[in-house]
Amino acid sequence: MGYNVAIDGPAGAGKSTIAKLVAKEKGYIYVDTGAMYRGLAIHFLKKGIDPENKEAVAKACQDAEVTIGYENGIQQIYLNGENVTEMLRTEEVGNMASKTSAIPEVREKLLDLQRSLAREKDVIMDGRDIGTNILPDADVKIYLTASVETRAERRYKELKEKGEKCDLAEISRDIRERDERDMTREIAPLKKAEDAVLVDSSDMTIKEVVDEICRHCR
Q1: What are the pLDDT digits (tens) for 48-86?
Q2: Same domain? 22 vs 70
Q3: pTM of the entire structure?
Q4: Domain containing 83: what range?
């Protein structure tokens, strides 16, 4: 049985960055569940599917195979055998993933893969419902959050560094909308597990957050 660490929290809280660093520090395998949903989102975008058309989304799941691989210890996402890792972090893909991840068939598609990884390996997994739904018996549960303003600033800087045109007010609005959508969806909404440790990273450095989470892990 693997040792499991679950990190949940809203969009832009830095879950992936932190989870990768904790994994490196502790020798765990990092599983980015959000990237898996984004992999499926790319499939829906390629097919030109409207995310509001739940039947079409559910049907499209049938001919999509999302798998995880590791190159030099870094997680790669494959969609039907094609490495789509470089395409995962666009706003378009993120919004499609946020809208479709609440659809039961989409969640079911990825749940088995996530749980089997956790059974076999020492993993740190981040997402929206890891501690509440995917790994309810995780050894350590963290709820990582930050203010909307902090998360928008971080995203703005990230996009600027990539040379992309972006608007801070628009990013803030997107984050608020995504929070609302994630927290109010019927299936596995984003919420803090009762036994999760709350970590607010608004005024913390990355190192401080990593140290805080490592303190709770074996």
Answers
A1: 999 999 999 999 999 999 988 888 878 899 999 999 999
A2: no
A3: 0.81
A4: 33-120
Query: Which of 68, 177, 190, 217 has its CA nearest to residue 130?
Result: 190
119 strand-pairing partners? none
Cα distance between residue 148 and residue 167, in whole Å? 15
Residues 39 and 24 in one domain: no
154/160 Cα distance (integer angstroms): 10
Instruction: Specify whether 55 is located in the same domain as 142.
Output: no
In the chain, beta strands by DSSP E: 4-8, 29-32, 66-71, 74-79, 82-83, 123-127, 140-145, 197-200
Last residue of a domain, one of 94, 120, 146: 120
Chain centroid to Cα 123, Å, comes to 14
- Regarding whether 100 and 60 lie in a shared domain, the answer is yes
Tally of domains in the chain: 2
Condensed to tens digits (0 to 9), the pLDDT of residues 150-192 reads 999 999 999 999 999 999 999 999 999 999 999 998 888 999 9
pLDDT in tens, 125-143: 999 999 999 999 999 999 9
